[in-house]
Design a protein that fits this description.
Blueprint: E1 34-37, H1 44-60, E2 63-67, H2 73-87, H3 91-94, H4 101-106, E3 111-112, H5 117-120, E4 128-134, H6 151-177, H7 181-185, E5 197-203, H8 208-213, E6 217-222, E7 228-232, E8 239-243, E9 248-251, E10 259-263, H9 265-270, E11 280-283, E12 294-300, H10 315-320, H11 333-341
Parallel strand pairs: 1-2
Antiparallel strand pairs: 2-10, 3-4, 4-5, 5-12, 6-11, 7-10, 7-12, 8-9, 8-11
The chain binds 2-oxoglutaric acid and fe (ii) ion.
Length: about 375
Amino acid sequence: MPSAVCPSAVAKPTIPKFIPAAPTKEKLDYVELVNLDLSKFENPETRKSLAKELLDGVIKHGFLTISNHGISDELCESQVNLAHAVMTLPAEEKAPYEATPEEDALGRYVGFKPAGKLGAKGGFHKTLDHYNILTYDPENHQHPEVLRPYVDEVNEVIGFIRHNILRKLLALMAIILEVPEETIASTHAFGKESTEYLRYMIYNPRTDEDNDKYRDLYLAGHTDWGTFTFLFSQPISALQILESSTNTWKWVQYLPQSLVVNVGEALELLTGGLFRATIHRVVKPPADQERHKRIGVIYFARPVDEVELKPIDSPYLKRLGIDKPLDEKVFNMADYLEARKHGYKRLDFDHDRPRTDGYHMDPFHGNY
Ligand SMILES: O=C(O)CCC(=O)C(=O)O
Ligand SMILES: [Fe+2]
């Protein structure tokens, strides 16, 4: 595959290699996702068919895979190694880089998920942790020592996802909505205040007792709050989506070297519901993988703070009759995040199993 972006050649301290689990041999009930081959973007004719495929994917499942995205295998691997190194730091080394309650209140959830009071609020279990790196970070937050020599690489990954992969998806959206490219691109204008971030995640294997307690759930059903979420494909099967046509949970299959992309609430609101923010969750992996650490590298794209979350002025949405705001009140992105954090539209999608008092948990305290 074409490798548009590779780790830079400057010598850095070596990060131990993370050995990922082998793909599962179990036959799981997988969802069939549309795959976008991004190499088709270059040619105007194949670009049009790619736009059709994107539309098909977001209508059907709100989840897709992307191949030929341009991030080299080497860089993907390096990011996973780095995520592993950061997420396995001892608690005392993480402590200075935890999000503060003030940052949390503003929706600038930066650094490690707090382990203290704030973190205990939602009954967060200690097997799951994350570290957020803001894209727009005027305060220039300091990173843990292990990450500092790699900040260039992290910025390279963020920059490539934003300026290349996301830009292409936004251009395909412009084709679908029959509007100028700039109309869509401006919703994610670079350098304006926004809450986008790259997230490193770890899911540590749990005891049978904890799995019972949390009903095999690692992350309860939810929809993401932004536009597109990009997940580096990873071999541990655990991600499931709620398939709307059957109302059943289906597994997302591991497709090596791809990105898994899903639609968030902001994009649903911007498209009058044409693009679907699909409910998903993370559950206990199959038996041949459940004793392995699961490392996540995820990019959350979001409109800039000032963008109003109402349908984009589009002839296509008008023809479909879905050009009116979906919600009674129209928020801009910043206010929407704040409202969501404080209980607006709080949804409980985890409806497939009986709820046990005290056992339900929302590890992100509603921060998606
Ligand atoms: O770990 C995963 O596969 C998905 C995580 C997720 O849904 C999220 O962080 O919003
Ligand atoms: Fe999610």
